[in-house]
Design brief:
Chain lengths: 359, 280
């Protein structure tokens, strides 16, 4: 905190490089040169940006087509309605969380605790049900708990100014630990006719989780694109300072988004618990990496301000096909981890290239 | 937001006037003994400043003199912890940027407060979006933004739907200024608006600044560049280590006098125009 800096940045007229000429003619000439150079640069930048945008938009669709074609060629069960619906049902769980994770990433944060929030929600429902609570009430309580964990993540991150990667890594570990200890790593069976329908039922032969995913995706797409709230999320992610100066309640906004993603993890936990008919602490394990991978692959930038619901949708579809294909071909689920890891690195590198091209 | 405090307006008025024919008019904004402290750092001590409508008041001073802090107290980012602010003659409290904009004070920040990922229209309406049935009313915002830009004769933009990241420094400054005047503002505050600009773009921004004053707005203009300051300013106020050491009409003023005040807080050169020089 220097009160009186020694160096002066004053530009005293007459000393140092003076502004060349101040006659009208000379200014006009400079004006012309300046504008011409600026226009050229701008044009080049615009070209590059358009190329990158196509790479991100059409390129992603191309990857999807490729993965789809490979799977089609590899397994004759792949391209059947029943299989595709199963794949959609499975990937919907990931998709529900990826949608909210996209918003979190756009606003400039990240939440990697979702897998353990899912698990903790499931275990909590199991505990409540074994102690005689109605399964639906238990689900509601589980959902509230998931939202509360989101609020904790948000408050620690926003008001104590802790990097959200660290905050959510912490809560990830805390709640996963609790889930395992409390459940004693045991799986608890959960009966209830109606409750099971949530995860494994179908409407018009389409699995119920798909409806959850589509409804959540469509809602968030709409909010992000057409509402003031969406605009403010993008603005805050690009420049927190600018958002504050524009009068946006950027802190409240970020905490709200953490609550929302907590709730989405709760919904995912409920759906999986319902589908399995049991509560188990392991159910969140696959989602730590895959959700973030889907979001980054979809073009959202970890530096905030960028990302689209459409990109996330395509990325979720890519992961869905991959997961399904791996199951059909009976590849090891460990190999799936490897592939998802590769995709994550690939996605982050692409983002890096995009950013470089924009400078 | 208005604190009703019956201060004796006359006393303070008599003490600090005398410069530049601004005698009888009511200042748009007046700071009286405004102070601000950050922990151990006394960033501002008892600043007295008057800003008149239709004039450009330049605030100059060395690095760390307190220029940005002064502006931030006026715009509600760092509310002052001592002294008072008068708006059109009445004492007011400005605690948040919202309070400031409710009065008609808009700020163009040194580090531009624009979002690169949003386009020109979206930036100009950021935080004050127009809606229709709860949805963003893009058409009405676009035409209002375009109208404001053209009323300021900002013609270098290719499209108002261009993202701000793709604009040149001068274009961004123009957007920031247009954003500031769009809200029927009465006072526009500009913190080093020409700092990162080339010659032609600087000329454009200076012209824009004069245009605001000729529309009857009050303008506070902070710059390190004396060419710029003398080109646009009607009044020049000098800050030195958090104190206001001089407030002088720009017309006919010897630059060297200003340089003296900026570098040492005092001037021995013919001090006839001195309006204010406390203690130093
Ligand atoms: N948010 C803050 N917290 C603590 N100290 C601050 C803060 N903002 C400014 N200061 C201090 O207040 C003093 C005045 O700073 P200010 O930014 O107003 O200088 P300035 O005149 O705008 O300088 P420059 O020409 O470099 O922009 C400095 O000593 C600075 O370190
Ligand atoms: Mg400054």
């Amino acid at each position: 905190m220097d009160v009186a800096p020694q160096t002066s940045r004053l530009e005293i007229p007459g000393a140092g490089p003076a502004i060349p000429g101040s006659s009208g003619a000379e200014l006009a000439h400079l004006d012309f040169e300046d504008e011409r150079v600026a226009a050229l640069q701008e044009q080049r930048l615009a070209q590059r940006r358009r190329f990158i945008e196509r790479l991100q938009g059409e390129g992603l669709l191309l990857v999807f087509g490729l993965v789809f074609a490979v799977m089609w060629a590899s397994s004759r069960y792949f391209l059947t309605v029943a299989n595709l619906l199963t794949a959609a049902s499975v990937v919907s769980i990931l998709g529900i969380m990826a949608v909210l994770e996209t918003l979190i990433v756009i606003v400039g944060e990240i939440d990697i605790s979702i897998g353990s929030v899912m698990a903790a929600t499931s275990v909590m429902i199991g505990l409540l049900v074994t102690s005689g609570v109605d399964v639906w009430l238990a689900a509601v309580i589980g959902l509230a708990f998931a939202g509360a964990v989101g609020a904790v993540n948000g408050i620690i991150t926003v008001y104590f100014k802790i990097n959200s990667l660290v905050t959510t890594l912490g809560t990830y570990s805390i709640f996963l630990g609790i889930a395992y200890v409390v459940s004693n790593t045991m799986t608890v069976n959960i009966g209830g006719e109606g409750f099971g329908k949530l995860g494994s039922g179908t409407i018009l032969s389409v699995p119920v989780p798909v409806f959850f995913f589509v409804a959540i995706w469509a809602t968030v797409f709409f909010v992000a694109r057409f509402t003031v709230l969406g605009r403010h999320i993008y603005a805050t992610g690009d420049s927190y300072e600018a958002a504050l100066r524009a009068g946006i309640q950027a802190d409240r906004l970020r905490v709200g988004l953490f609550v929302a993603i907590g709730l989405s993890a709760g919904v995912a936990g409920i759906l999986v618990t319902s589908e399995l008919g049991s509560a188990a602490p392991q159910i969140g394990d696959p989602y730590l990496l895959s959700v973030v991978t889907a979001v980054i692959l979809g073009g959202a930038s970890l530096r905030g301000g960028r990302g689209t619901m459409f990109g996330t949708l395509v990325a979720v579809a890519i992961l869905g096909v991959l997961q399904n294909g791996f199951a059909l071909l009976q590849f090891s689920s460990f190999l799936e981890n490897t592939v998802i890891g590769c995709l994550l690195i690939f996605a982050v590198l692409t983002d890096r290239l995009v950013r470089r091209a924009e400078r | 937001m208005d604190g009703i405090e019956s201060e004796q307006v006359v006393a303070a008025d008599a003490q600090a006037s005398g410069g530049g024919g601004a005698g009888s008019r009511t200042p748009l904004l007046e700071l009286r003994k405004m102070s601000k402290q950050f922990g151990p750092v006394q960033a501002l001590s008892e600043i007295d400043l008057k800003v008149y409508p239709g004039e450009v008041t330049a605030v100059v001073g060395d690095n760390g003199a307190g220029k940005s802090v002064t502006l931030k107290t006026i715009s509600g980012i760092h509310p002052p912890d001592g002294g008072e602010i008068l708006w059109q003659g009445k004492p007011v409290h400005i605690r948040t940027p919202k309070d400031a904009s409710a009065l008609g004070i808009e700020t163009v920040y040194q580090d531009l407060a624009l979002c690169g990922n949003l386009d020109v229209v979206q930036n100009m309406f950021l935080g004050r979006e127009r809606t229709r049935n709860h949805l963003l009313d893009e058409n009405s915002m676009e035409s209002a933004a375009a109208a404001t830009l053209s009323s300021l004769s900002v013609t270098t933009l290719r499209s108002v739907r261009q993202s701000v990241a793709s604009l040149s420094g001068g274009q961004r400054q123009a957007v920031a200024v247009a954003k500031a005047v769009m809200w029927n503002s009465k006072l526009v505050i500009m913190d080093e608006p020409t700092a990162a600009l080339g010659v032609a773009q600087t000329a454009m921004v200076l012209e824009l600044t004069r245009r605001l004053a000729s529309r009857g707005l009050g303008v506070i203009f902070v710059s390190h560049n004396f060419n710029d300051v003398f080109e646009v300013a009607d009044q020049i106020a000098v800050l030195y280590l958090g104190r206001l050491v001089a407030s002088l009409p720009a017309k006919g003023l010897d630059r060297q006098v200003v340089v003296d005040y900026v570098t040492s807080g005092a001037s021995s050169r013919n001090g006839s125009q001195l309006a204010h020089a406390d203690g130093a």
